[in-house]
Amino acid sequence: MDIEKIVIVGDGRFAEAVGNAVAEGNSGTDVRMLTHKQEYEEQVKSTGHFRHFSDVNLPSNLSITHDPEKAIQGANILFSILPAQVTSEVIAQLKPIILDNWDNIQAIISGTKGIVVDSRQRISEVFADIFGEEKILGCEGKFGVLSGPNFAADLMDLDPMMSTIASHNLQVIEYLQEIIPKKIMRLYPSKDVVGVEIIGALKNIIAIAAGMAHGLGFKDSTTATVIGRGAEEIKKMARKFGAQRRTFHSECPAMSDLEMTARSSQSRNFQFGVHAAQRLPYPEKKLGIAEGTQTLKAVLPVIGEQELDMPISLAVQKVLEGVNPSEVIRELMERALQTTY
Q1: CA–CA dist 303, 299 (Å, integer)
Q2: pTM of whole model > 0.85?
Q3: Are 151 and 264 in contact (CB under 8 A)?
Q4: Is 220 exposed, middle or buried (0-12, 13-18, 19+ CB in 10 A)?
Q5: Are 152 and 14 in contact (CB under 8 A)?
Q6: Could you tell me which residues come within 8 angstroms of residue 299 by beta carbon, excluding any fewer than 6 positions away?
């Protein structure tokens, strides 16, 4: 199928980077970004530059609009790249327009990494609630998850990278592999929507923990310890909800995302952890939302209900509640050792 139109729902840094990448790789395709802010549209149109990357010109085939009808009408691929906590509200509002174009839309791709606090839903479950399980997660469902080690700034620079595209429908995977150029991003397929979503969400909690360790002055050995044990915590949660074992292999792009997010100063969650450990206010307006704080609120009840052993996640919560970070570290290190293997 020829892809004539692609729409990105969202106007954050990663939405802009994805919009730029697909526009650069599909010069004959109409690419639209849908914003809910008229001033965002006016600013971008007046400057000819992206808002969050003001030194980058908009590709000639990419346009911005706050009119949902103009954005979605006739689209073949729809990206949803929104904060997790507003995804349900925004997509529910767009539901009538999306359904009017349902036959034309071949794939709905989520670039959101998070879990909704109130409902404890992953983003695939949000879409399934709105459009129906079969339309989204059936063997011919149109939903896919894009998740991997992809910082927005690096993607905007068109640096070579990899990512996972997870879907129950092979055609969705093939559509995304077709529209994102291989020279920018190698896309590795997966059927494990659950596992990829949980890794993408929970790695932000572990990144906060790694940032806290860095903020306390600890070095690489501590960071590696946080990442290694944090990966085990993510695995416990994901396996509880049916994730596949192979998704947690070290070569999987979703797991590489944990490594990147928990080590880099580009990571908002890492930076949040640094600020929290040093008892400094986190500059959200400057750096952006640290999704890991909301994900933690969503998973804390699940940890208790499922009796999961996730001490690093619980330690992050203690620091956020005001417990001295040094005392939390001491408690973590003095936990009883395992004597069986």
Answers
A1: 6
A2: yes
A3: yes
A4: exposed
A5: yes
A6: 115, 120, 202, 205, 237, 313
Domain definitions of the chain by residue range: 5-191, 195-333
Across the chain, the runs of DSSP E, i.e. the strands, are 5-9, 30-34, 62-65, 77-80, 107-110, 143-147, 161-166, 185-190
- Letter for the amino acid at 160? P
| Top-level class of domain 5-191 | alpha beta
Please give the single-letter amino acid code of residue 123.
I
Cα distance between the two ends of the chain: 52
The span from the CA of 169 to the CA of 107, in Å, is 9
The whole-number mean pLDDT for each consecutive block of 10 residues of the chain, a chain of 341 residues, reads 92 97 95 95 95 96 97 98 97 98 97 96 98 96 97 97 97 96 95 97 98 96 96 95 89 89 97 96 92 97 95 96 93 84 62
**CATH class of the domain comprising 195-333:** mainly alpha
Q: Are 202 and 233 in contact (CB under 8 A)?
A: yes
Q: Of 203, 240, 286, 297, which residue is the catalytic one?
A: 203
DSSP H/E element including 126: helix 123-131
**203 among known catalytic residues:** yes
| Closest among 187, 175, 202 to 106, alpha carbons compared | 175
Backbone angles phi, psi at 315, to 5 degrees: -65, -40
What's residue 339's pLDDT?
67
